[in-house]
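Please, structure for the following, as tokens.
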Amino acid sequence: MSSPARPNPARFPLLLLGIFSLLAAMWAGMLRIGLALPPLSPTLSGGHGPLMIAGFLGTVIGLERAVAMGRLWMFAAPALAAAGGLLIIFGAPQLGAMSVTLSSAALILVFTQIVRVQPALFNYILTLAAAVWLGGNLFWLFGTPITHVVPAWATFLVLTIAGERLELARLVQISRGGTAALLAILTALVAGAFLAPFDYSQGWRVTGLSLASLSLWLLRWDIARRTVRARGLTRFIAFCMLLGYFWLLAGGLIALRYGFLYGGAYDAALHAVFLGFVFSMIFGHAPVIFPAVLGVRMEFSPSFYSHLLLLHLSLLLRVGAGLAEWLPGRQRAIVLNVLALLLFLLNTVRSVRRRPAHFRQGL
């Protein structure tokens, strides 16, 4: 059973703003792929990526760290990310980019403080993730096309998740060779992220090779290979991790194969990483992170497998349709992707309990 602190209502508004950006990002994604929906604002469709990465994920990542540290100034990072999302939604993308860039700078300060308290490898990786996010945001702020900035944004999220798995997931004891391999992979990943704005094709290939290599490293060292044989929440989390690593490998291989990503291949590679990998991690960690952030209790339910299954089946359709350049298939898949995320939100809300609820917690 989770043991959250007493509920703090001040945390809810920022999370709700993050979820609002998530909903807007899903709407924007359906607009971008050509579904006949009201545009809501003239610039919304172009904000799909920034809303998902900064408005939602940037807010949630910053909020989780601010709550964990309990220092008021640290809430500046999620607040600026949430504000950036709102500015993008309501037609001020340049101001939104400025706010998001400030958010990433604030997040670096947060992790720098955390490193001073606990100078562990995973905290250095998390600090590096925030620095890469800042670098990518600066390119975006000064006019670099989003397609060239996406590798930096992907690197930010992948580094964050890798760092949190090292911190939270009780990985097995890593050998010196394993640690050296991890550092080499992460170095290449960062190099690819900052090569892409100057050489799009080679930047994506380096990024793709690094993502694929990291997925194999995580499969080798993550304890999820063992805990998948457990029960309850522990097993669910393990399934999420292993499925996520599969999609990270797939996205990396697509980027490595195609290099100059465009059209359906671009869509396939990006969503293999951002939906398949990142949201698998979110699905798995939500029953642990949300209670800690919001001060509530959540009860694990087998219904959690419904949104996990729908996400991955719809993503198989989306990636396959993208590689085949089959637009109607991609359009159907994105609707199913959206339904999977909405089902996740519904199942998460339904699992909240006001009184202690017993479930096994495991990573």
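Residues 1-8, 355-362 have pLDDT under 50 and may be disordered. The beta strands are 297-298, 352-353.
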